[in-house]
Amino acid sequence: MTYRENPLLGRKVFFLNPPLSIENYVIECLKGDDYEVYVIPDYTSAKPILRLFENAICFIFIDDGLTLDGWYNFIKSFEDDVSLKSVFLGAISIKTKPKDQERFLMDLKLPGGFVMMDKKQEDLYHQLDKILDINGARGVRKCIRLVVDEGVKDVNGYFSYNGLLYSFKLVDISVLGFAAITPAKMSSIFIPGTVIQNVSFTMGRYSFVTNVIVLKKEIKDNNCTVIMLLDKKLPKSIKKDIHDFIYETLGRRHKDILNAVLKDMTNYNSYKKLQDADSGESGESEDSPEELKEEVSEDQSQDKDLSKEEAGEDKKEDSADSQSENNQNDDSSENQENSENNQSIPEKSESQSDQEKSESGDEKSEESKTEDNSSGEDSKN
Predict the structure, then answer these.
(1) Element (DSSP H or E) covering residue 290
(2) The pTM of the whole model exceeds 0.85
(3) What's the pLDDT tens digit per position in 282-339?
(4) pLDDT by residue (tens digit) across 92-123?
(5) ∠ at Cα 263 (252, 58), nearest 5°?
(6) CA angle in degrees (0–180, nearest 5) for 305-306-312
(7) How far apart are CA 207 and CA 154, in angstroms?
(8) What are the DSSP calls for 77-114, one per residue?
């Protein structure tokens, strides 16, 4: 499918992070037009869910939840994800400035356009309805249809024929008709173009009785698949019950998916490299397993080489550190010896000075004695 081709069976419609005004009015109006509409409460669940539904269309309310650049990065990342390239995106805002609107429209792929909420809710609904119609959201189907799987209980049909009660299991149902499976032995009852009167239906808490028209049948193995149309005169109240049952069932399925998917925890507000945002969840790499193995082995060998180089550098650093420590020890020991010598020198000088003083004192005393003796001899004479 090319980028602009619309799918035959339509698109599932999602609103990501919608305000209450859209959720309570616009979405309900779109459901009334039989669009298959869902709400995704925040961006962490968006990508994991959208990957499950090829060709979906998603309108993103960009005024909160992330920064404006964060939403820009989030939308841009879809272009790099193979599993999301078929998803159509649109932006919705109340306060985005014209220059930022232009940046989104010029730089990003937005088939859903950039919708400003500067209008009445009814006008907003009609604008979104036109966008969905252009992008083929309904497909060839005129109304919403529920595929009845094992998770849907108490959905059956009953009718009386020739005094016997027959039952059948519904395969799918809409407000226009349904498909059912019956045993092959019942195939003779279902003649295309005939009307079966008073067929009873039970769908959970809903039940009703109406006439049906056999459209066609197909016998395969031991089963007969029959396609039947509901009476055109079916009351609106019964159509509403069928419609409500379908959306209630689809809503429960969607809630189960929301609770089951792994969340996308990418911080798009600081998402600089617009690459694969969910590589841990989605396996979006296009490389083959062999190439990945080769890359891993190369990375490992590079890591080993780096570790060897780092180990060698560590050894050099250790030896340099030990040498510097030895030098520091030698310097410290020399400094200690010098300090001890410097301390011992002043002690010696002090003792020498005391000794010199005592010697000079002795010399003076001897000189005085000599003078006394000489003076005594002079007096005698």
Answers:
(1) helix 289-380
(2) no
(3) 333 334 333 433 443 444 444 444 444 444 444 444 444 444 444 444 444 444 444 4
(4) 999 999 999 999 999 999 999 999 999 899 99
(5) 65
(6) 90
(7) 10
(8) HGGG-GGGTT-EEEEEESS--HHHHHHHHHHS--TT-E
